[in-house]
Every structure is written in structure tokens, then in C-alpha cells.
Design a protein that fits this description.
- By secondary structure, the chain is an alpha+beta fold.
- 23% of the residues lie in helices and 25% in strands.
- Strands 2, 4, 5, 6, 7, 8 and 11 form a 7-stranded mixed β-sheet that branches.
- Strand 9 (185-188) and strand 10 form a beta hairpin.
Amino acid sequence: MKSFSKILRLACAAMTLPLLVASFAACKPSSPPADTDGTTTSTVTEETRPSTNPIDTEASTVPETDTEAETDETPSPYMELTADTVIYCPTDRNRTLKKLSTALVESINAKTGITLTVAAGDDKAPADSEIILGYDATREATVAAYSATPVDSYSVYTKGNYAVLAAWNEEDLEAVADLFVETALVTEGDRWFIQPQAAPDEEPPAAVALSAYRIVYAADADDAIVNTFVPRLRQYLLDTYGAYVDAVSDAEAPTDYELVIGSTNRTTAEIAPYLEGDNALKHNQRAVVPVENKYFILGDSAGTIALAFSYLMDKLDTHLIGQGTVWHTLAPASLSAGEETYISAPMVTTDRAEVAEGTDLRIMSYNILNQDYVPDNPLPPERDEEFADVLLYYMPDVVGVQEANLAWHESFDMLFSLSGAYLPACRYHDGKNTAQTTFLYNPLTVKLIDEYVIHYTDWDDSDIRVVSFAVFEKLSDGTRFVMTNTHPAPHAEHYADHIDELIRIKTEEFKKYVNLPIIMTGDFNTRESQSQYNQILSSLGMTDARYDEGVELVRDVCTYTSLPSGEAVGGTVTQANNNNIDHIFINDKLGSLLFNVVIDHNVVNISDHLPVYADLILK
């Protein structure tokens, strides 16, 4: 899956499908785009590199044209550099790009005397003339540039009045910026032009493009695979990688390059042991088995197959330069078969995974730790997969999630949306940012009816400090219930105000739902020993599901830990100490049958909080 050490800058909000489809339709990644007027492609072959000596920058000039008079208006086959040309950064959140854009302004000025401005951010409309740093799916020129630039190489690509510095990682982007200033800027008189340049590298090693593969599934596969997973996967590969990947049933004749989903007639003696016998994959396990030029993606459900497939996507060669609201966009990439088999660890637990008898709803609350948080101790890159394991093992109907930043939301797309296992609610609170206090819900058990987010007024970090509301309906009987999720600031200067405002907001909103069951999840940053804990319960008429009358308390331990040792604040994860700050509160229309704090499945290394869940009954 997109391990967060590899997840690349993602565009869940700003990227629009019509624009992507139009861009990719005009330029299929498996082959360079056709030349059009004003378009120059660059490659890495010696035959097509510019004849200009890449070292002798002073001698670099625009080739003479056949025009009768040499004036300032002399036409050129190249893009002209003027003071109106803008350096465009697809994101203003990447430090490398910000430093590089500043350095590029200075270098260009030193060479040409022209001072350019920098435009950065998610929603900047294209200028009439741009130098674009890296990949931006909303700029057609960048889609074409990356399609024409082989993996492990970089180039300056021009299309009309747009020049793209195309590279597949940040180090190469710095290198292509140097190449751009040294050899791509050429002069004729007092005018400057940009000519495309290829990287002075050897050709990259041969690789098989993702678009050369096709997806193969069993002709009798479950509907969840055929009608949900496969179509969503194809669209995902198109949107994210620009790769058109066909999908066929195993009734079709085999081809050389296949991504085989589950048990099919392609199963060989090498694959059979993963599917049957004593060593077969256990429940919720998955595997990726490379055999020659084919990959077998194995699991016992659409959800586990989606996790296995996302692991395979991590093995693609990808670039690290993405769009601002798309923290981890991936460009066209290549596969290389022959890697060792990947098998996930089996899900083992000593607590209660099955729901309590009579349960109407299983609700979870989980602070999953913002991906931008980098403590001194490293976090395992697979923790997003491990988070998905927890959800797919305990299968809550709704999860109140805190600290789900943009990188997490990209993972949700790959982990859950492809398989249809979980969908997000309260994902966006405006047209630009992603609310980090959100929900994931199981569309097979509940339906989303309404969703909205209310900001705290005294906190400008609105991504993380919000109060989210969602109304759901049980598919089994049509019963509706309300979920609210929150994460007030722990900081002393904001904490008391946030608790007061939390109570005010929810008091007002709860008036809309006087006849409905209401469930509050969240990292309240409020310990049971604090006065605010009782203030929340009494003011809103709620009960802590952990201590409801008759509840089965499976594991009574602290919910807040410090990474990576699992040591809790004031105690350990194996003992209760009243330092619980993650809560599930319920109103009088619900009762709690079971409450558990999860400590299995490597959760102490997923986040600094442990997930909690409650099995609830409707009264």
C-alpha cells in the first residue's frame, strides 16, 4: 500500500476526473505524445539530444531561421523567456520545491537579467507562460512531459508557452533545474528562449510499463471483485498513474503480463499452496507472488486483495513531486517482476473480535497520528496497512478517526475505496483542505444520510481542530443515528475554551436530533480525573460506553501511549490508570454491551493512541 515513507503528494480534492481523462486521452503514458504545433518533446537517446554543446553555455544559441529580416520579432521554434514568465510550483508545502524555486529565480536572473515571480499552491490558474517544477495533473503539459520522460531520467520539456522540469524524485528535480539554467536557456540578441534538453545520462534500464499489464479475475469471482474492486482499480490506476490497464476474466487466453486477482485458472503449482492446504493464507492474510512476468494478488476478500495490490503499487518506480492538495500523486511508472513473495502476517488476537450477542452497532474511535508528525523514533512505513488490518478484523460499522491528514486520506482511497470496505464521511470542510477529524463507515451495514463540519472559532489550524457530524442509517432496519467526532486542542491556552465551545456546539446541534441515538467519539484530550470529563457528560446528557451499566469490559487499559515502546502516560498499556483520553459517549437511546481497548495487531506502533470500540444496543 502506499507505505507512508513512499506515499507521494496527493490530490484528493483538487484533481478533477474530466481534466485527467482529457489529459491522459491526449497523451497515453506508454508512448510519447505526438508532436503538435508549439510542442517539443525530449528523450534520453543520443540521436535526439540537442546539437548544442551542453557544457558550452555561452555558445548556446537559437538556430538561425529563414526569415528575411532579423528583428526583435524573429520567430523561434522555442518558448521565449520573458519577465511575464512565471515559475509555477504545484505545491507550496514541499520545502525542496520552495527552496528550488527561490534558487531558480536567482540563477535565471544571474544568467539572463530577467527576474521571474513564483506562483505556488493548489488552485493557481495557469499563467500565459510558465516554467513548471515537477508534476501537476491539472497542467496538461506536465502529463505529457512525464509520459515522455523515462523512469530514472529527467528532462526539460516544452509545450507551447509551458516548460516542464520533469523528474521522478527531488534529487533529480534539482539536477534538471541546473541543466535548465546551464543548457536550456539560449539567447539571440537580447531575447532569451527555452530549448528542451535531455538528461546527460545513459538510457534507463528496460522496464515494463504498468499499462502493458492487464488485470485478470476469475469468471465466477464475487460481485465485490468484478463490479466494485476491478472497475475502481482501473480508474484508480488511470487517475493516479496515467495507466490504461485492461481487465478481463480468466476465460480469456493468457498473455505475458498479467495482474491476477485471487483464485483463477491461472493458478499453478507455485500458487496453489497459498490457496489450499495447511499453509494456505489465513483469514485477512494476503500475498503478492511474482511468477515470471506475472503477479498473483491473493486474499480472501476484496478488502485484503486491495491491501495486497496496494503493497504491489509500492514497488513501482515513482516520483516524489506532487500537487499541493495531492500530497502523494504518482506518475506513470514501471514494474519489475522477480521480487520475493510478500505474505502479510496473520491476524492474531487474544481478545474478543466477535460482536457481543444482541449488538446493533459496533463503533470505534481511533486517533491514527498525523502522517506529518515525525518523532525522534521512527514509525513503521506499513502502519497504514496495519490500521486497515485493525478495521477489517474488528469490522466496526463506523469509526471516528482523528488526525487523518491528506496523506492518510490518500491511503483510505487505496485501502478501502477500491474494495468498497470503508468510505469516508466529513472528509472536506472547504474546497481546499481535508478535515482531520473524520469518519470511515462500512457501506455494507450503514448508509450516510448527512455530514457537516463546524470549526472551533479560536484555532486557526482548522484541519485538525473541528467538530464533525454525520447522520447514518442502518441498512438492516432503517434506524437512523447521529455520530459526532472531535479533537479539542490539548494546549493549555486553547483547551478550556475548546471544551466550552464543544459543549456549546453540541448542545445546539443535538436539538436537531432529540429523538435519535447520538454517539460521540474522539480524542478529547480529557482524562477521567479531570473536571471537564464530567462536565461534558453532564452538560450533554451522555454516558461513557466504557462504564455503562452491565457492560463487558474486555480490556481496561490506558488509551494514550508514547511511541514506540508502548509506554503509556502515567502507566503502561497493560494497566488502567485513569489516563484514558479516547472516549465513546452515548445518549440515553443507546446502551453498551461490550467495550474494548485494542492492544494487539502492532497498534502501539501505528499511533500514540490505542483504538477503542464499543458494541452498542439501540433502546
